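Tip: read the tokens left to right.
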């Protein structure tokens, strides 16, 4: 559950203000020495390092070890977090340490399943970056290992811990927009870093990098640093737009609606601008059919990611219902236009006598009102916004650490994580194989 439980509502007139810390926040300040959680980072790239930094903001968390195949990142880890850190290029040395309670897996996608499974079998709890797995065939083994070992595992799509998405969930369940019939989500970027043009260090040499370990199960190719430092651009190691961004959108939408996944997946797109040697598209669109389930009628989902957006960076959701639209960005906005009080008519093609008879009956049923400002249909809009400086990333790590201490389930466990990753990865299958994929979200299996 969110650590800040109260979301302040703003009408079209009222402003927004910050909320107070919740009881859980206050409780965190009283962590005893026995409640300390010792963590290790496996994969100290940008996202992994960000996870480690954020996790240490949770009271009682101590970073003990860091593993990475690039020596420079091990040096940087000690510069950043202290010379006392144990560092190694071999993640198995981290898992062998009895003083480590949990690990953060921030490696390239093709290592997620292997390291998560090894960590749980070694008795460690796991925070694994999204997508949980690189290939659909990897998912079941991760789910089964978590069930067998009983370890805590949380997937790193932080929107499921966000008070913004919790408020959207509450509004949808309360019928704020009537019956849901369509969801649109988008993520636009228009800069080099956003398109994964990450910097390559000048000391990227075979002596400083364990190249064979990086390749893992991927095809054996000669040393080429760009493949390591821009691994998201290559299908051998990453999952492209779908695994990097679509999976965030699936996670957030599944949390808000309670849906567990689509039954049909279709994707298209192309490589339009970033022709830098990558083999994944930079413009990607997906369409998904969601069956009726729980409180939800059947609805359709449309996803879009564009790395060539001239409009700049922007992302969000539009939940379209029978009574209004709910938009999620930095906050939640619900917009409603009340339905018309009369249906209107289209009678121009009728004979004049028939028109007159029709109008006489129509006006008797719907008496005409004199046109004035009061008769205009109002647009009702409610806005909800998180407190200034709020971080769902921090809340996601708070929730993980709380579960490590309490042994209670997390929101984004391997089942949830796989149900978000599955349709994202099938979007790649649909795109590269040019076909529609049939998915069973209940059993999490590809049907065709």
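Filled-in amino acids:
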């Amino acid at each position: 559950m969110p650590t800040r439980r109260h979301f302040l509502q703003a009408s079209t007139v009222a402003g927004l203000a910050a909320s107070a810390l919740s009881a859980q926040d206050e409780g965190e300040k009283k962590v005893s020495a026995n409640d300390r959680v010792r963590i290790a980072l496996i994969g100290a790239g940008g996202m992994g390092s960000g996870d480690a930094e954020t996790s240490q903001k949770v009271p009682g968390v101590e970073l003990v070890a860091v593993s990475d195949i690039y020596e420079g990142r091990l040096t940087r880890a000690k510069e950043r977090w202290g010379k006392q850190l144990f560092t190694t290029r071999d993640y198995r040395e981290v898992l062998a340490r009895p003083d480590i309670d949990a690990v953060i897996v921030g490696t390239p996608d093709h290592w997620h399943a292997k390291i998560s499974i090894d960590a749980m079998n070694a008795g460690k709890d796991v925070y694994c970056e999204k997508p949980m797995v690189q290939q659909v065939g990897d998912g079941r083994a991760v789910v089964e290992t978590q069930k067998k070992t009983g370890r805590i595992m949380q997937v790193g799509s932080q929107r499921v811990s966000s008070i913004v998405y919790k408020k959207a969930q509450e509004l949808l369940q309360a019928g704020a927009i009537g019956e849901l019939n369509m969801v649109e989500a988008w993520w636009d970027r228009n800069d080099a870093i956003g398109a994964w043009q990450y910097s390559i260090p000048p000391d990227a040499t075979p002596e400083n990098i364990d190249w064979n370990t990086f390749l893992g199960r991927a095809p054996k190719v000669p040393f080429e640093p760009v493949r390591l430092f821009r691994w998201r651009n290559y299908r051998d190691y990453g999952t492209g737009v779908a695994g990097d961004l679509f999976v965030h959108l699936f996670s957030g939408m599944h949390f808000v609606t309670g849906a567990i996944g689509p039954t049909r997946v279709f994707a298209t797109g192309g490589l339009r601008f970033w022709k830098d040697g990558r083999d994944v598209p930079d413009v990607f669109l997906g369409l998904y059919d969601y069956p009726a389930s729980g409180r939800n009628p059947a609805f359709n989902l449309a996803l879009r990611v564009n790395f060539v957006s001239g409009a700049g960076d922007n992302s969000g959701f539009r939940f379209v219902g029978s009574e209004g639209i709910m938009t999620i960005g930095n906050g939640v906005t619900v917009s409603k236009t009340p339905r018309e009080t009369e249906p209107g008519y289209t009678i121009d093609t009728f004979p004049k006598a028939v028109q007159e008879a029709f109008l006489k009956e129509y006006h008797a049923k719907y008496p005409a009102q004199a046109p004035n400002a009061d008769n205009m249909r109002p647009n009702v809009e409610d806005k909800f916004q998180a407190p200034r400086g709020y971080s769902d990333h921090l809340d996601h790590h708070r929730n993980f650490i709380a579960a490590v201490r309490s042994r209670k389930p997390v929101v984004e466990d391997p089942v949830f994580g796989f149900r978000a990753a599955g349709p994202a990865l099938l979007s790649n299958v649909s795109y590269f194989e040019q076909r529609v994929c049939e998915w069973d979200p209940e059993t999490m299996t590809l049907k065709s």
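Residues 1-8, 10-27 have pLDDT under 50 and may be disordered. The first helix runs from residue 23 to 28.
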